[in-house]
Write a structure and sequence with these properties.
Layout (H helix, E strand, L loop, with lengths): L1 H40 L2 H4 L26 H26 L14 H9 L6 H11 L3 H15 L3 H26 L22 H19 L10 H20 L3 H26 L3 H32 L10 H34 L29 H5 L1 H5 L3
Pfam family, one: TRAM_LAG1_CLN8
Membrane topology: Multi-pass membrane protein
InterPro entries: HD (IPR001356), Homeodomain-like_sf (IPR009057), Lag1/Lac1-like (IPR016439), TLC-dom (IPR006634)
């Protein structure tokens, strides 16, 4: 009947219309949620002191302020640095390594064995005695042969000496350029000599072009380190390195948005100073210039302790913790910034402890122990005597101390 037809048409129209309405409602709810998150994220009290708004930091009267959108510039900068690093290591560092006679050790290849390979990739790189016995039964090999296979397999994944040299060369050159660039950007600034000047007129402090490039290069470098962690020489403090790189990027980003740029440049300069000596000492170690490498390790220890354990906490953290209170009341950004500095200081103390232990051994035993965090090469021969990892004379300090203080 006409009534039934109209009824069914109405139901069909309603069914077709409801999904569109629900989709529109979902989009509206999603937009409202994103807008709420944006408002909370950029709430002025999170980033700025009381009585200061984002409108106060708009460019005017020949004053240019840092903007959050400029942080995206660190991404192409990181990609460019990765390309520059590749070219540097291939066409400069590698020929230099060959000229200095730095060669990779000839390694014996592990025999093909699907059972051991599966265990190595999915369970453990260094099996226990019980697992060695079990694998010996499964493969029909003697236990000694299984142990030798795992040593050779582990060695296959370890980076060669030339890779270590190239990596250290790149870091040394970057830290040297960054440190010199930082000094050029700071030497004529009043806050370089008087830390109270860091907070003069804060946060209405105009950005200087040298500060922009200094920040972008440093952020690009640490971002490139995060992107290349899976390809770089791995250390036992891999997690600490990740924490450090992430904390550094968060700290630099927050200081940029909140206009903590002056203190940020000082923090970067202090950190870069000891890394130059560290990476330079590693280069001498790889080149077998042991006396020079030993001297560099001593110099590095002194510089690290002075910059990371003295200047950083008692000057810079004191500057960010005490002096700002003369100009404004504490706010979220004040506590957050100081918290991130304390995270870095905890890592400094951890690395300083390891470096001090090696320095103690070096002074009283006239030699340096193997690196407690470095992945050392193992003897992969099939001798029946007990085979222990060989410890190099200098790897413990120069080859390994990098992650304890690396950049950082």
């Amino acid at each position: 009947s006409p009534d039934n037809t109209q009824h069914y048409l109405h139901r069909a129209h309603r069914k077709a219309f409801l999904p569109a309405v629900e989709t529109c409602q979902d989009n509206t709810a999603w937009s409202i949620m994103l807008q709420t998150i944006k408002e909370w994220l950029w709430w002025e009290r999170l980033w700025l002191p009381k009585r200061v708004s984002w409108a106060d930091l708009e460019d005017k009267d020949d004053r240019i302020y840092a903007k959050a959108s400029q942080l995206y510039d660190a991404v192409p900068c990181a990609l460019c640095l990765l390309v520059v690093r590749y070219l540097f290591e291939r066409y400069l560092a590698m020929p230099l390594a060959n000229a200095l006679g730095i060669r990779d050790k000839v390694r014996l290849t592990a025999e093909e064995n699907s059972i051991l390979e599966k265990y190595f990739c999915s369970q453990a790189r260094n099996p226990s005695r019980a697992d060695v016995w079990s694998l010996s039964k499964k493969t029909g090999w003697p236990e000694r042969r299984v142990e030798v296979w795992f040593r050779r397999r582990r060695n296959q994944d370890r980076p060669g000496l030339q890779k270590r040299f190239c990596e250290a060369s790149w870091r040394c050159v970057f830290y040297l350029c960054a440190f010199l660039g930082g000094l050029l950007a700071l030497y004529d600034k009043p806050w370089f000599y008087d830390l109270r000047e860091v907070w003069t007129e804060f946060p209405k402090q105009s950005m200087i072009p040298s500060q922009y490039w200094y920040y972008m290069l440093e952020m690009g470098f640490y971002l490139s380190l995060l992107l290349s962690l899976t390809f770089d020489v791995k250390r036992k403090d891999f997690q600490e390195q990740v924490i450090h790189h992430v904390a550094t990027l968060i700290l630099l980003s927050f200081s940029w948005i909140s206009n903590y740029i002056r203190i940020g440049t000082l923090v970067m300069a202090v950190h870069d100073s000891s890394d130059i000596v560290l990476e330079g000492g590693k280069l001498f170690n790889y080149a077998k210039w042991k006396k020079t490498a030993n001297v560099m390790f001593v110099v590095f220890t002194l510089v690290f302790m002075m910059t990371r354990i003295v200047i950083f906490p008692f000057w810079l953290i004191h500057c960010t913790w005490v002096y700002p209170l003369d100009h404004y009341d504490p706010f979220f950004g004040y506590y957050f910034f100081n918290l991130m500095l304390l995270v870095l200081q905890i890592l400094h103390i951890y690395w300083a402890f390891l470096i001090s232990r090696m320095a103690y051994t070096f002074i009283f035993n006239k030699q340096l122990d193997g690196d407690v965090r470095s992945d050392e090469e193992e003897d992969d021969s099939d001798s029946q005597k007990d085979i222990k990892p060989k410890l190099s004379h200098m790897n413990g300090a120069i080859n390994g101390a990098r992650g304890r203080a690396n950049g950082h």
